Task: inverse folding
């Protein structure tokens, strides 16, 4: 049974990783095209809305998908009841979205926002209607099907967005792109899962799941506000152009971390939840997954920081050169996310959601205070203050997360040490190359050659010098189903 779980976990992780790689290419390609058609101010306008509606998105799921995945045994009646709760919450959020449009327009001094809020409101119902279907598929580690759903929804949404952008509809192209993703994903999830909800049963025993889900939701809300308040502040006090630059820089540098966490995080959480009563295997699975995430996050983030000017020109175009400094200043923040985000797998899978909430209640005011310090200096000041605050918080966060669990600080340092040292060596070589070719080649050539050099040095140091070949070969053998 455990061997089957290991094999399904590796296969699921591989499917998600491939899917997230395709998703990364799709998002990057869409961003490259749209950034050359749509003005930064239009991106900023939509970012003003999504910074607020992202809060509603947290409530649309209600933490109930996490509760469904984490619970050792769950019945059809329980899932059906949770489904109808999700739908009711989604409908309420859609109404609140429409009602809050005029208030948000007045706050930002931007009347167009009211109509954008009306347009995005149905997305909350679409999202809510697929929460339990996708959660059931995650419980069963059906990540190939989930990956197909995600890619299909992004392809259709991207196509619609680009067509409307070419028709010179500006920010409405971004709005339609955002709405199409949950709509297509919901239709596909219903078709692929095979599960149909029954009528809600108040006495189905969902009390513990609701308590778990509400704690996860509150934690998500606190963390979201903490990590997105700067976008609201920049939009309010510096306007849509400044927010457009900051928002695209953040989105671009966050792509490696968000892609990897999306690929491996869901699989790891589902697998660890199944192993919560087997400490030895739990520890082994977590440390392997953690090391794998860092081994890919570290070089990607360092590469982005080293070649930030060239990457911005290649991806976003010459109109966005002011975003390069913001992009570079945010790099430490994204690297820290790569270190601390996987720790949420550990806490939630063993039922320590209250500790996760307490951590969020510390992080949110810490980074919010940093935003206020950096706000007078514009997007660059906010980016610098954000990175500085999270750097100070990193070590206390790790110690608090691991306290009383089967994972020690020494375990984590050992898992992180090899990829960090390998990344530092590769970054040093790549930085030397970047300095030597700063004025002698085209940006695309410099990025391609620098990336190849950095990847080669990193792989050589990690696999041979740090002797990690057996770890990755074991993953490949598991992927092939070898004994």
Result:
């Amino acid at each position: 049974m455990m061997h089957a779980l290991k094999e399904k976990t590796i296969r699921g992780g591989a499917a998600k990783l491939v899917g997230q790689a395709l998703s990364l290419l799709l998002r990057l390609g869409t961003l490259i095209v749209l950034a050359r058609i749509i003005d930064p101010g239009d991106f900023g306008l939509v970012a003003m809305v999504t910074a607020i509606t992202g809060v509603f998105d947290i409530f649309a799921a209600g933490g109930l998908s996490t509760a469904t995945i984490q619970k050792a045994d769950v019945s059809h009646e329980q899932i059906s009841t949770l489904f109808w709760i999700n739908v009711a919450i989604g409908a309420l959020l859609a109404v609140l979205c429409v009602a809050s449009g005029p208030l948000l327009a007045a706050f930002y001094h931007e009347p167009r926002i009211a109509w954008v809020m009306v347009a995005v409101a149905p997305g909350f119902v679409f999202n809510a209607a697929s929460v339990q279907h996708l959660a059931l598929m995650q419980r069963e580690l059906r990540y190939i099907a989930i990956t197909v759903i995600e890619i299909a929804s992004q392809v259709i949404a991207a196509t619609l967005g680009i067509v409307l952008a070419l028709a010179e509809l500006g920010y409405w192209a971004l709005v339609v792109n955002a709405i199409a993703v949950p709509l297509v994903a919901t239709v596909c999830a219903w078709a692929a899962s095979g599960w149909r909800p029954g009528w809600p049963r108040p006495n189905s025993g969902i009390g513990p799941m609701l308590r778990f889900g509400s704690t996860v939701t509150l934690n998500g809300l606190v963390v979201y506000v903490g990590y997105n308040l700067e976008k609201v502040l920049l939009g309010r006090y510096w306007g849509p152009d400044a927010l457009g630059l900051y928002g695209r820089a953040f989105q671009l540098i966050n792509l490696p971390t968000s892609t990897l966490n999306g690929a491996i995080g869901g699989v790891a959480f589902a697998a660890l939840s199944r192993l919560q009563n087997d400490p030895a295997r739990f520890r082994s699975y977590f440390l392997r997954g953690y090391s794998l995430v860092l081994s890919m996050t570290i070089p990607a983030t360092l590469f982005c920081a080293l070649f930030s000017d060239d990457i911005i020109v290649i991806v976003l175009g010459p109109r966005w050169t002011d975003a390069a400094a913001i992009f570079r200043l945010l790099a430490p923040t994204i690297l820290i996310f790569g270190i601390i985000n996987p720790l949420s797998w550990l806490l939630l899978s063993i039922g320590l959601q209250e500790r996760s909430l307490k951590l969020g209640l510390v992080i949110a005011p810490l980074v919010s205070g940093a935003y206020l310090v950096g706000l007078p200096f514009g997007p660059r000041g906010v980016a610098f203050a954000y990175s500085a605050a999270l750097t100070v918080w990193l070590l206390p966060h790790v110690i608090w997360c691991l306290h009383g669990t089967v994972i020690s600080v020494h375990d984590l340092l050992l898992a992180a040490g090899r990829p960090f040292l390998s990344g530092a060596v590769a970054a040093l070589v790549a930085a030397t190359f970047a300095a030597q070719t700063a004025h002698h080649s085209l940006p695309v050539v410099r990025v391609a050659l620098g990336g190849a050099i950095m990847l080669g040095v990193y792989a050589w140091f990690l696999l041979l010098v740090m002797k990690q070949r057996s770890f990755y070969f074991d993953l490949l053998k598991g992927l092939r189903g070898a004994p």
Observations:
- The chain has one domain: 2-480.
- The two ends are 13 Å apart (CA to CA).
- The CA atoms of residues 359 and 396 lie 10 Å apart.
- The chain is about 85% helix and 0% strand.
